[in-house]
Amino acid sequence: MAFIQTVLGPIKPENLGVCLPHEHIWCDQNLGPRLSLMGTLRDSGKFMRLNNFEFMIDELKAYKAAGGGAIVEVTCEGWGRDLDVLAKLSLAAEVHIIATSGFYIEPHIPYFLDSMSIEELADHISSEIEDQVSATGRRCGVFKSAIHRARVEGLELKVLQAVAIAQKRTGAAITTHTTGSRRMEVSGGVAGVEQLRILKELGVSPTRFIVGHVDERPDIDVLCSLAQQGCYIQFDVIGKEHYLLDTTRAELVHAMIQRGYLSHLMISQDRNRDHEMRFSGNSGYCHIFETFLPKLQKLGITAAQITTIMVENPAKALTIS
Fold this sequence. Notes:
Helix 1 packs across helix 2 (83-93) and helix 3 (118-130) packs across helix 4. The chain has helices at residues 53-66, 83-93, 118-130, 154-170, 192-201, 220-228, 246-258, 287-298, 303-318; strands spanning 4-6, 9-11, 19-23, 27-28, 49-50, 70-73, 96-98, 100-102, 142-147, 174-178, 209-211, 232-235, 265-267. By secondary structure, the chain is α/β, with parallel strands linked by helices. The strands form four sheets. It has a six-stranded parallel sheet with strand order 8-9-10-11-12-13. A three-stranded parallel sheet has the order 3-6-7. The chain has a two-stranded antiparallel sheet with strand order 1-2. It has one domain: TIM Barrel. A hairpin with a 2-residue loop joins strand 1 and strand 2. The chain has nine helices and 13 strands.
């Protein structure tokens, strides 16, 4: 039986609705256990954090009112993931929330991973999909692998290898953090190229791989190559124009549609700090509706194509069968 696993239980894929596949709802980056690895120039006061319950209910209700149906909450174990809180928010706002297993970049990886074998780690994260995360019986619905260096190495490689094993066991998709900073030697500007190579060697189908953060430093030929292999291409820092203008993002989405990759595209915003949200005077989860979709429409992208990107593709990617 095909289903999508939310924090409130499984739903039919056709009931997902409009979905933002890479957002944060409840997180605190200051909880990361290895923050010394972040370097001395990072201001901890600017770390990712969303942890006001009443404010987040209002944010989710605003998203629901704008037409939203679901959000993939990509905060992992180690910096504030709480499926019970997410379940309460989901109930209050009537928005489907899909929680994430796996781990974020090394500064946020719990110390207990150091002594675990890859197989033991695969058992741990598989259980979060197939069994439960806590005594309340909540389950995750997607895996995450995150890379923050110029190479897939060390603990981050260990996590990716364990995620590959767990993916093949459970069928759940893999979503990724693929920082492509200009200080890094990253092929094609996105670490997803190297992640995919490793996953394929370990037997994971590219059709179960969501390449995240492609719009930090995009190379359209590389993105099309990844899509051609079957990957989902996720423009998911929309609104963060210090990486790339939204107008350029829209043009890239349009160009990929023109090249035949509509069925591989997803869009999101990676909201993760108070100042990005409506309660701080910004647009929160509604930026895509208010600002980005009009840019797509101006380029001639149709309502049906937007539905494919925001409804059909996430449902297909998140379905476990």
